[in-house]
Each structure stands twice: as C-alpha cells, then as structure tokens.
Write a structure and sequence with these properties.
Elements: E1 2-11, E2 14-24, E3 29-33, H1 40-47, E4 55-60, H2 69-74, E5 76-79, H3 91-102, H4 109-116, H5 132-143, E6 150-154, H6 162-178, E7 182-186, H7 190-193, E8 199-204, E9 207-212, H8 214-221, E10 225-231, E11 238-239, E12 242-252, E13 255-264, H9 270-280, E14 283-289, H10 293-301
Parallel strand pairs: 3-7, 3-8, 5-6, 6-7
Antiparallel strand pairs: 1-2, 1-4, 8-9, 10-13, 10-14, 11-12, 12-13
C-alpha cells in the first residue's frame, strides 16, 4: 500500500530525509518513530504529494504522490497536530462541510462519527470553544469521513484524557482489524502504539535505523532474557556466573520475600536455571520481563560509540 525507496529531501542545506526506504502492506498499522526533527512529518508530507522529493520513489496504493497527488489525497485520511477547523462553526457543521468536500453521501456518517468519538454533547457548540482533546477527536472524525484506505496520523492522542485516548486507540484497532485500513502513525507516546501497530520503523536525521515487529526487535536489540523471581532465600553476588540484582522487598501471606532479577543469554535457558535455583531456595513466583517498545526505542536510538 505504501512504498518508499531511496527517498531524499532537504530544506536548503538541512537534510530532512536521507536515502530512506520502507514499506507498509495493505491493512497494516506501522509506527514511524524518531525524535523531534528526525523527518517523520516531512515523510508524511512527501507521501501526500505536498512536497517534491529530491530523489527516490514513492507509491501510495500504486500511485505516485507527485504526479497523481489528487488520487492519493482522495484515498487518504490525515490528522496533523494542527486542527484546521472553522472556529465560528459548530463541530457538526464543520464535519458536514468537509463531508461535502469529500463527496460523502451517507446521511448518517457525520452523526455516527460524532457519537463514535464522544462528541454528541458538544456537536452544536462552536469549535472555538473546544478543548485540545475535543479538537483532536473532531480531527479524527474528519479524517475518517470518506472511509479512507490509508490513514496518516501525526500524534493522534496528544491532548487527550485517558478516556479519550482509549476511545481513539479502540477506533484505530477496529479500523485495522475490521475494515482493513492501512495506518502510518507518528507518536512519542510509545506505550500506546503497542496496542495498535503491527510493525515499527525507526529513523534518525531522516535515515532508517531499524524496522520490524516488536518480537523481531526484541530478538535483535534486547540483551538476553531478564528473569524476575520471588524467593524467601537470600541471594547475592553471582549465581553460576549470572549477575544477580536485588530489586525490592515484598510480602506474601505475611512472609517477607525478596524480588531478584537475572539476565540469561536466551529464553531456552530459563527452565533449567529455575530448576537449579529451586534446589537452593524456595521460589514463590517467576516471570520473564520483556523489553517494552520504549526500551527498544532508546536502544535503537543510542548513538554508536
């Protein structure tokens, strides 16, 4: 659905995108991740045909955004950090106006989206009275008016309260799973993306650093397996050469327990290690601790020494 190959773009002497290549298949949700200034928004503007690339090729649903930008924009839904609504009109009037521009003929489409994003009580109010979170939800409703095949989302949950965030994330999951909508999403709220995205593309200074699903990225960047155990026995120093770190004290049914973490080379080492440990100390619990997307992000973004 989206194909980027050897993409380059500069603003004067500043390189925004440097020989970037990645793809998004139809129905896939992909997170485009990087620090501020890494080129994420520039990539989206290039994919929409709003900027001319200095080199490389772009395709969205088989079309070149530069030569067939009208088609690309017609099949795309876009949410940026700026709302772009008419403040003197109500939320419902704004959506009806944009529905007309998009050629939406479903009479109930506006009302359905207003309800979906929890805006029914404010639909008749002018948009200049909306909070940041309400504007974000209205922006998502606008992006979905014409049932786009591709969604480009730039920080879609910024400014939302927990309830609004949950509504938005649930809507994105439903779009991906039930309607096969392709989603390219940029966000700094990495914990939220784990509930939505199939894969992730990491960039820095417009160049690709890594890409893959979270399990693939863990296999590549997580240094070994972290195992946490609860025990009433004392451990210190090294256990068969494996570093031991005391994490905290806790209690279970009135018994004082210690929580320790171990770093093992691979998952296959866990059963045997636990069996040996249980021979020496009482065990009350054990769990493998996997890196979060945020953990992986900082490992990927670490500058090479």
């Amino acid at each position: 659905m989206i194909r980027v190959s050897g993409l380059r773009h500069s603003f004067g002497s500043v390189t925004a995108v440097a020989d970037l290549s990645f793809g998004v298949t139809a129905g896939e949700a992909v997170g485009l991740l990087g620090p501020n200034g890494s080129g994420k928004t520039t990539v989206i503007r290039l994919l929409l045909g709003l900027l001319r690339p200095d080199g490389g090729t772009l395709r969205v649903a088989g079309s070149d955004p530069l030569t067939d930008g009208s088609r690309v924009r017609a099949l795309s839904g876009v949410l940026t950090e700026t709302a772009g609504f008419y403040g003197h009109l109500s939320g419902a009037a704004n959506l009806r106006f944009f529905a007309g521009l998009y050629g939406v003929t479903e009479p109930a489409r506006v009302d359905r989206l207003i309800g979906l994003f929890g805006l029914a009580g404010a639909a008749g109010r002018t948009v200049d009275t909306y909070s940041t979170g309400m504007l974000k939800r209205l922006g998502l409703a606008r992006a979905l008016l014409h049932r786009p095949a591709v969604l480009f989302l730039d920080e879609p949950t910024n400014g939302l309260d927990p309830e609004g965030t949950r509504q938005v994330l649930a809507s994105l999951r439903r779009l991906r799973e039930q309607e096969g909508t392709t989603i390219l999403i940029c966000s700094h709220l990495l914990g939220q993306l784990e509930a939505v995205c199939d894969r992730y593309v990491f960039i820095r200074r417009g160049a690709l650093l890594a890409e893959g699903s979270l399990p693939e990225l863990r296999r590549r960047f997580q240094p070994g397996i972290t195992l946490e155990v609860l025990t009433s026995g004392g451990l210190s120093g090294n256990l068969e050469g494996i570093p031991v770190e005391s994490r905290c004290s806790t209690s279970l049914a009135g018994k004082a327990l210690q929580r320790f973490s171990f770093t093992l080379p691979q998952a296959a080492d866990v059963p045997g290690f636990l069996a040996r440990l249980a021979d020496d100390v009482p065990l009350y619990g054990a769990r493998v601790v996997e890196d979060t997307l945020e953990d992986i992000y900082f490992r990927v973004q670490e500058p090479e020494s």
